[in-house]
Amino acid sequence: MSSQKGNVSRSRAQKHQNAFAYKNNKYGATSQVKVANSKIHEGLCLHCKGVLEWKVKYNKYKSLTQPRKCVKCSEKTVKDAYHILCKPCSLQLEICCKCGKKEDIVVPINSDLDKEEPEEDGEQTEKGSERGKKDRDSDDDDDDDFDEDLDDKDDEDFDSDLNQKKTQKGSAALPDVSRVHFKE
Q1: Dist CA 80 CA 86 (whole Å)
Q2: Is 77 exposed, middle or buried (0-12, 13-18, 19+ CB in 10 A)?
Q3: Per mean pLDDT, which range of 6-20, 95-109, 138-152 is the poorest?
Q4: pTM higher than the cut 0.85
Q5: What is the pLDDT of residues 18-41, one digit of tens each?
Q6: Contacts with 36 (C-beta within 8 Å, 6 or more apart), sequence order
């Protein structure tokens, strides 16, 4: 048995092994899963960041519905799930928001980053509109290749149409009926 006292190593490989990894959005992501996947875990030490990423990966992360009370300032300012400190207290004391230990913060809390995100979204929409223009231009280029074969014939027809329009403008009262065919 593997749980036997003093048995440090196993003598065989794992009996049941998964063929593929678990996906938390396999059958279409719910809004909660989308929010959890897009969440940036900032102000945490390496261990706590790993714990929260595991919770998100295996669909165990439950977000807060109401703000919690910070253990340092005793105000309801904790907006993130599993955190015990608000971001201002964590910044001021330089400690992890989840465990409260003074360790190296992996992703620092930046209020400037929050302000820059909407600007980046604006740039992406501009780039997206440029892509659309490029796609339309490339479609027009494809049409030009097709039109080159017809250009010779179209030029002759166009010239004759112009001449007819000029004569029609001169005699605007009388239409040109030479090309009209009547059924009998």
Answers
A1: 8
A2: middle
A3: 138-152
A4: no
A5: 899 899 888 888 999 999 999 899
A6: 24, 56, 61, 63
Strand partners, 68: 78
Residue range 40-58, pLDDT digits in tens: 999 999 999 999 999 999 9
What is the SS3 assignment for 45? strand
Whole-number Å distance between alpha carbons of 56 and 35: 10
Instruction: Judge whether 61 and 55 are in contact, CB under 8 Å.
Output: yes
Q: How far apart are CA 106 and CA 41, in angstroms?
A: 9
> Comparing C-alpha atoms, which of 29, 173, 181, 48 is closest to residue 104?
48
Query: How distant, in Å, are the alpha carbons of 83, 154, 165 from that of 168?
Result: 82, 21, 5
CB burial of 95-110 (b: ≥16 within 10 Å; e: otherwise) equals bbbbbbeeeebbeeee
Considering only CA atoms, which of 33, 83, 42, 21 is closest in space to residue 60? 33
Give the start-end residues of each E strand in 83-177.
none
CB 101 within 8 A of CB 95: yes
Distance CA 59, CA 36 (A): 9
